[in-house]
Amino acid sequence: MTKPSPHAPLSDAALDQLFREARTHAAWLDKPVSETTLRALADLTKNGPTSANCCPARIVFVVSPEAKARLEPLLSKGNRAKTMAAPATAIVAYDLRFYEKLDRLFPHEPSAPSWFTSSEAKIRENAFRNGTLQGAYLILAARALGLDCGPMSGFDAAGVTREFFPQGDVEANFLVNLGYGDPAALKPRLPRFSFEEFCAIA
Amino acid sequence: MTKPSPHAPLSDAALDQLFREARTHAAWLDKPVSETTLRALADLTKNGPTSANCCPARIVFVVSPEAKARLEPLLSKGNRAKTMAAPATAIVAYDLRFYEKLDRLFPHEPSAPSWFTSSEAKIRENAFRNGTLQGAYLILAARALGLDCGPMSGFDAAGVTREFFPQGDVEANFLVNLGYGDPAALKPRLPRFSFEEFCAIA
């Protein structure tokens, strides 16, 4: 069923939860993240747009003590304690052979793989760009579900790739701790640019 | 003011608007996007998380007939008509000298620039990853404000960089048409992966 268009803006409370009051968290309440919630999170995330619906993101949710122990030594030192304390950590990766699935994901255009495969650099650029977009959709979908996030680039990406994606072709991109953040542990929000400092209207 | 934590999930109507029923649009209702709305969009977008708050995205909103005429020849043929018809097009770019602003954006850690500047490749990777995350925040912030989006990678990125960012250091990443989409012009949603096809729980 198609809803009326145009849509109204979401409520101020929703905009606060997604953007204005949402914060990166490093301290977590003692409240687990269920498999049901992780599946709901993936189910929202996957709807976000990618080039020719190429959907290159591959995600491992690290939850068990065994998997956490495999991840811990690959984290930057400053990211270890908060990641081990998080109820779950999403390893956001991308599949460099994403174009092999386009016959299913973009079935009306048989030439779609050729849009990406002119060079290794082009494949990598598109896997990285679109896989990163999907990682951002995951962050905002998590917030939409009431979760808090702690995204991180400080880790041994090659090591995480070897440890969690040993099959080859899939490479780790960034990590997102997931849980229910402790608001008492937050420091004031860091500055942002003014409109004119990062935007222009032409 | 800090709201109670944990948050509740957003309403189903909000999840539909952001993810489940949101679609990439190519046909637009005859309804402009005001400068007020573009400023509100930027104001939400800028809150999203980036590595060390590095905020590398730079955005030009193409609105005027003159700016559209500069963009048109740089688009892939299949992207021209829908982009010229869109009320606005965001050129999402990234600043390769983003680390020069960390003294303001991450003031408590004077060594933060050195986390990014060990090589040109590292600078570029971080500008691209974080600038792309911010582009995804823009897409979802637009939907949160009731706008519809049409993101595109099909254009001459080097040409758009030369035309819209002639100062150097800022490079075009992708484009997002913005407006109020015509739901009557939508085709059925393309397939997505099942949970097991792109996710795992470890």
Largest interface (CB within 8 Å) is between: A-B, 91 and 91 residues
Characterize the quaternary organization of these chains: homodimer
Span between termini of chain A: 37 Å
Q: Tell me what the CATH architecture of chain A is.
A: 3-Layer(aba) Sandwich
Contiguous uncertain segments of 5+ residues of chain A: none
CATH superfamily of chain A: NADH Oxidase
Number of helices of chain A: 8
Helical content of chain A stands at: 25-40%
Strand content of chain A: 15-25%
> Which of globular, elongated, flat, extended, rod-shaped describes the shape of chain A?
globular
Sheet bearing the most strands of chain A, described? 4 strands, antiparallel
Radius of gyration of chain A: 18 Å
**Kindly state the mean pLDDT of chain A as a whole number?**
97
Biggest sheet strand order of chain A reads 1-2-4-3
Fold-level CATH name of chain A = NADH Oxidase
Count of all domains of chain A: 1
The CATH C-level class name of chain A: Alpha Beta
Q: Could you give the count of β-strands of chain A?
A: 5
